[in-house]
Design goal:
Blueprint lengths: L2 H24 L3 H11 L28 E5 L18 H13 L4 H4 E5 L11 H10 L2 H27 L4 E5 L11 H10 L5 H4 L2 E4 L6 H9 L6 H17 L2
Parallel strand pairs: 1-2, 1-3, 3-4
Helix pairs in contact: 1-6, 2-5, 5-6, 6-7
Length: about 250
């Protein structure tokens, strides 16, 4: 990658680490709340190891490396938060994403795709973020307010990190998951912050922001099968579908 892109990556890593440190400092009881959620939902197959997950794979990127996509998923799940991993999209959804990029696009998913999330706060499933916030509220207004502020604030910060990386690189920003971007969605704050960040962006850059369904449960594979014209190049069809989704869901 060029010097500008690598400098942007380095700034993003520092900003990301600072975000994680800030959430940790402001929410010392987060792991206990996450463990309460784990027990309540009957998850006996793992333990809380990393309440707020920085993607350690970003630290392995070197100036000589190149990437074709920035992919934004939701939040770290069971495998992502394991101390041995601390990497994004290493569970079942990650395997599906890796298979698609490697086999259908000829892109090495683990070397040529930078992976971010909309929030670094862990829950086993994304929808359980609502329950996590409710559990914090039950422990008292102070903890509830702190965690809600961290959750919304982390989304805004992660949106700006993605925008900074995207603007400095000749890549596609691939947003995975569109269901929680609505007015009452978990990631509405991310959507709002991202939209604001692209207000003055060149149209060519805006049109390299693509939005798709999740890889989980083959939602993305079904979306492509139902909407892509098999007689046309796959990348052309991905651009058409992704841009149309962005305009429809995000409004820009």
């Amino acid at each position: 990658m060029n010097k500008e892109a690598y400098a942007a990556l380095d700034r993003a890593r520092k900003r990301f680490r600072a975000l994680v440190s800030r959430i940790e400092a402001e929410n010392p009881g987060l792991a206990a709340i996450q463990d309460k959620l784990r027990i309540e939902r009957g998850y006996d197959d793992y333990r809380i190891e990393t309440p707020i997950v920085y993607n350690r794979a970003l630290d392995e990127v070197k100036p000589a490396d190149a990437f074709s996509f920035i992919l934004v998923a939701d939040n770290p799940g069971k495998r992502e938060q394991l101390a041995v991993n601390n990497r994004y999209l290493v569970g079942q959804s990650g395997k599906l994403a890796e298979g698609f990029f490697n086999k259908r696009l000829g892109v090495d998913f683990r070397r040529e795709v930078l992976i971010l999330n909309k929030s670094p706060i862990h829950t086993p499933k994304t929808a359980e973020l609502r329950r996590l916030l409710a559990l914090a509220d039950e422990l008292g207004p102070r903890q509830g307010q702190a965690l809600r502020a961290a959750f919304t604030g982390s989304q805004a910060e992660m949106a700006l990190i993605a925008r900074g990386l995207h603007g400095a690189s000749d890549t596609v920003l691939w947003l995975s998951g569109l269901g929680e971007f609505g007015p009452k969605g978990l990631f509405r704050r991310y959507a709002d912050a991202l939209g604001k960040a692209y207000l003055d962006a060149p149209q060519a850059l805006r049109d390299r922001v693509w939005l798709f369904r999740h890889f989980s449960m083959n939602q993305f594979a079904i979306e492509v099968k139902n909407n892509a014209d098999p007689t046309k190049p796959l990348m052309t069809e991905l651009e058409r579908i992704g841009v149309a989704n962005r305009k429809r869901v995000l409004g820009w």
